[in-house]
Design brief:
about 270 residues, alpha/beta, Aminopeptidase, two-stranded antiparallel ribbon, 9 strands, about 15% strand, globular, binds zinc ion, N-acetylmuramoyl-L-alanine amidase activity, signal, EC 3.5.1.28, N-acetylmuramoyl-L-alanine amidase, N-acetylmuramoyl_amidase_3
């Protein structure tokens, strides 16, 4: 375990001990396994008053079910946790004081519905899930890092944004994703274009906005079962050796968190 990973796990352990909503979401569980949202006309996102606007910033995966492993063998969960925490801080300092960081634990699939419940029961106005990207296993190559056989793929890089047409606020979710995407683009960052390629197989997605990289992903429970507008951000690829270094840097983390907060701020002003 790397030192960074040890620190992250320690930090997370202390948060988990004091948190009330501790659940997990894997990325792509089948939506049909779960009940449909009870309310047809959710109250969320009707208007936006910053201090009252309840944003849930969801840390993708859990310490037990940590998502992807980076090119240097650090778990995705740690990357997600750092960035989500920074996004939460940026939102709060921008006036969104009701923003909440959602850190969860346990195994991936059984806790999906609980993660959604945490957002729905807390009557979130906005759900933002933070992840870092990898590639399908068949694209992985091997290298040696710190004496250990490790896996990487330098073929793709960039961030991407996902929304679900099954979300009751699909149009609103898409609008927010576009605003965040534009902010990221304005910072000189590029989006991951590979999701339309045949090589992605079952991970192929429909590109809804070719300018800023918003994709449709209906199979994601956290997007389709939340009763608020919901967006999932893949902030960058940690299986790409160069981009992993960037994603680990405070400079890049600042840029991305700032762009997300600016996108949410613009979204709020337009409502
Ligand atoms: Zn993930």
């Amino acid at each position: 375990m790397s030192r960074a990973r040890g620190i992250i796990i320690g930090l997370v352990a202390s948060i988990l001990l004091s948190s009330s909503a501790l659940v997990d979401a894997g990325q792509a569980a089948a939506v049909r396994r779960f009940a449909k949202p009870k309310a047809k006309s959710p109250p969320s996102t009707a208007k936006c008053e910053k201090p009252k606007f309840r944003i849930v910033v969801d840390v993708g995966h859990t310490p037990d079910s940590y998502g992807a492993l980076s090119a240097r063998n650090d778990p995705e969960f740690g990357f997600n946790f750092h960035l989500a925490r920074l996004i939460t801080a940026k939102l709060k300092s921008a006036g969104f004081v009701a923003t909440r960081l959602l850190v969860t634990d346990g195994k991936a699939r059984p806790s999906l519905v609980k993660r959604v419940s945490a957002a729905n029961d807390g009557r979130a106005d906005l759900f933002l899930s933070v992840h870092h990207d990898a590639v399908p296993d068949k694209l992985l190559e091997t290298w040696e890092f710190e004496g250990a056989k490790s896996y990487f793929s330098d073929r793709f890089s960039g961030h991407s944004l996902f929304v679900s047409e099954r979300n009751p606020h699909f149009a609103t979710s898409l609008m927010l994703a576009r605003m965040i995407g534009r902010q990221l683009r304005d910072q000189g960052l590029h989006y991951a274009s590979q999701y339309t390629m045949p090589v992605m197989g079952r991970y192929r997605r429909q590109l809804l906005d070719k300018d800023v990289g918003v994709y449709r992903y209906d199979g994601l429970v956290v997007l389709s079962q939340t009763r608020s507008a919901a967006v999932l951000l893949e902030a960058g690829s940690i299986i790409n050796r160069e981009e992993e270094m960037a994603m680990n840097s405070p400079e890049r983390q600042e840029v991305i968190a700032g762009a997300v907060a600016a996108g949410v701020g613009e979204f709020c002003e337009r409502r």
